[in-house]
TrEMBL record:
<dbReference type="GO" id="GO:0046872">
    <property type="term" value="F:metal ion binding"/>
</dbReference>
<dbReference type="GO" id="GO:0071586">
    <property type="term" value="P:CAAX-box protein processing"/>
</dbReference>
<feature type="transmembrane region" description="Helical">
    <location>
        <begin position="175"/>
        <end position="195"/>
    </location>
</feature>
<keyword id="KW-0812">Transmembrane</keyword>
<feature type="binding site">
    <location>
        <position position="303"/>
    </location>
    <ligand>
        <name>Zn(2+)</name>
    </ligand>
</feature>
<feature type="domain" description="Peptidase M48">
    <location>
        <begin position="233"/>
        <end position="452"/>
    </location>
</feature>
<dbReference type="InterPro" id="IPR032456">
    <property type="entry name" value="Peptidase_M48_N"/>
</dbReference>
<dbReference type="InterPro" id="IPR027057">
    <property type="entry name" value="CAXX_Prtase_1"/>
</dbReference>
<feature type="binding site">
    <location>
        <position position="386"/>
    </location>
    <ligand>
        <name>Zn(2+)</name>
    </ligand>
</feature>
<keyword id="KW-0645">Protease</keyword>
<keyword id="KW-0479">Metal-binding</keyword>
<comment type="function">
    <text>Proteolytically removes the C-terminal three residues of farnesylated proteins.</text>
</comment>
<dbReference type="Pfam" id="PF01435">
    <property type="entry name" value="Peptidase_M48"/>
</dbReference>
<feature type="active site">
    <location>
        <position position="304"/>
    </location>
</feature>
<dbReference type="Pfam" id="PF16491">
    <property type="entry name" value="Peptidase_M48_N"/>
</dbReference>
<feature type="transmembrane region" description="Helical">
    <location>
        <begin position="201"/>
        <end position="223"/>
    </location>
</feature>
<feature type="domain" description="CAAX prenyl protease 1 N-terminal">
    <location>
        <begin position="47"/>
        <end position="230"/>
    </location>
</feature>
Length: 465
């Protein structure tokens, strides 16, 4: 522990310029965030002309008829336009909020609202909670019409929307209520740990965040998700038998097998698993069950179990711990720097003893270009995991000595194609756009790889004979 703290102290020494040098932080944040937004707009402009291509890539030509292809191109085009406009609009709003010192304003409103109830600025956690609410209200107002447009115009036009206006409003209110019920105690505890641990907050805060993540894994599916969707046990039948037998053979600790009514809101479809290491649950969307045959859904699940087998969620959790550690390790230099807050229009009185939440929020803005780079790296890693899970599905016959699974790769290919056709997913993808945004390889890439795994495996099997 002492070694950790001496290393952290050395890092703070390196960053001590934050407290001493006069730096126009606000200008940097403006430049960084516009830089990221303009780069994202540039990527959309690279991708956009591909939506005008008139035929699908060669490998997919047999699977997409002209109608399905045109539909997916039109959907892609509309989504790209929407992303371009909303991206620029959101950035313009954020930029204006920053320019006009809205964060300092929100902090003062927070202070005034707690003063109304007789609490002074010495109640920093209370004022922080009020500040968070004010900021939340200010920033969520413009996003409501955008989200309504996306659901009722864009998704509706392409036949995906199943949400009614009543459902839209109740969903919104429910998610706010949940955000409040979970977010407020979380924020209060987070700030409390900060204050309590003093300069030695890094390991304590990491332990706190890890505990919070684990608690969320437990309560999300049991408490939160049922508020939005209905999870019902998967009916007896071929799919259930196949899934249970697959789980048993792989020693996957399957506790519950659910079907989720994803079709209540949208026709997009999928499957996933979650839970603690010794008790897992698999959830399959009703839309996937409707659109694919049981043996194809089984192949999708084989892919999902490949993620489990290769411990992808655990690996991602470790990566996120390193990420959190880096952020926290750099933070004190910004927390103990009144000049840093002054650069964002906070008054002298507030800046002298910087409130943790304010310093942390502004510090996050400074990190935006770094976060963009980390996002690219994480997407890259996620794509590697997808390849690995596809390969797992393809080679499962050898792992389980189950010759009846020899066509798992083909079944997965068929399921992926169906998913793409039904979801009108984009078929032509610009490589840079994909490297930045995609957590999954493109369909073309996956089909090619699945074929390659299959023929490599068949070749190896022949040699053995
Ligand atoms: Zn996957």
């Amino acid at each position: 522990m002492d070694l950790l703290h001496s290393q952290l102290a050395a890092l703070q020494q390196k960053l001590s310029f934050v407290a001493t040098d006069p730096i126009d932080w606000k200008f940097y944040v403006q430049a960084f965030s516009w830089g990221v937004t303009l780069f994202e707009s540039y990527l959309l402009l690279r991708q956009y002309p591909l939506y005008s291509k008139t035929s699908p890539p060669e490998v997919l030509a047999d699977h997409f008829d002209a109608e399905a292809f045109t539909k997916s191109q039109n959907y892609g085009k509309d989504k790209a336009k929407f992303s371009l406009i909303t991206g620029l609009l959101k950035q313009a709003l954020d930029s204006a909020m920053l320019h006009y010192g809205l964060y300092a304003f929100a902090w003062n409103i927070g202070g005034r609202s707690i003063a109304y109830f007789g609490y002074g600025s010495e109640y920093e956690i209370l004022q922080s909670l009020a500040f968070a609410i004010v900021l939340f209200v200010i920033s969520s107002i413009p996003s409501i019409p955008l989200s309504a447009y996306q659901t009722f115009v864009l998704e509706e036009k392409h036949g995906f929307n199943k949400t009614t206006p009543t459902l839209f409003v109740t969903d919104l209110l429910k998610s706010w209520a949940i955000g409040f019920v979970i977010g407020m105690p979380f924020l209060a505890a987070f700030l409390y740990v900060f204050g309590w641990a003093g300069d030695r907050f890094v390991p304590w805060l990491m332990a706190f965040l890890l505990a919070f993540q684990i608690i969320m894994v437990i309560i999300y599916p049991t408490v939160i998700q049922p508020l939005f969707n209905k999870l019902s046990p998967l009916k007896e039948g071929e799919l259930r038998t196949r899934t249970e037998s697959l789980a048993t053979k792989l020693k996957f600790p399957l506790k519950h097998l659910y079907e989720i009514d994803g079709s209540k809101r949208s026709s997009h479809s999928n499957a996933y698993f979650f839970g603690l290491p010794w008790s897992k649950h698999i959830v399959i969307f009703d839309t996937l069950i409707k659109e694919s045959k049981p043996d194809e859904v089984e192949a999708v699940l084989a892919h999902e179990l490949g993620h489990w087998y290769h411990m992808h969620p655990t690996k991602l959790l470790c990566v996120s711990q390193v990420h959190i550690f880096t952020i926290l390790a750099m933070f004190p230099a910004f927390l103990h720097a009144p000049q840093f807050l002054r650069a964002f229009d906070f008054s002298q009185a507030v800046s002298v003893r910087p409130p943790t939440i304010v310093a942390f929020l502004l510090f996050q803005m400074i990190l935006s270009p770094l976060e963009a780079v980390i996002g690219i790296a994480l997407n890259f890693l996620s794509r590697q995991f997808e390849w690995e899970a596809d390969r797992f599905a393809c080679e499962i016959q050898d792992r389980l000595s189950a010759p009846e699974m020899k066509d798992m790769g083909e079944r997965l290919s068929r399921a992926l194609i169906t998913l793409h056709v039904k979801n009108l997913s984009t078929l032509w993808v610009d490589w840079l756009y994909s490297a930045y945004h995609h957590s999954h390889p493109t369909l073309t890439e996956r089909l090619k790889a699945l074929q390659a795994y299959q023929s490599k495996r068949d070749g190896a099997a022949k040699k053995e004979l």
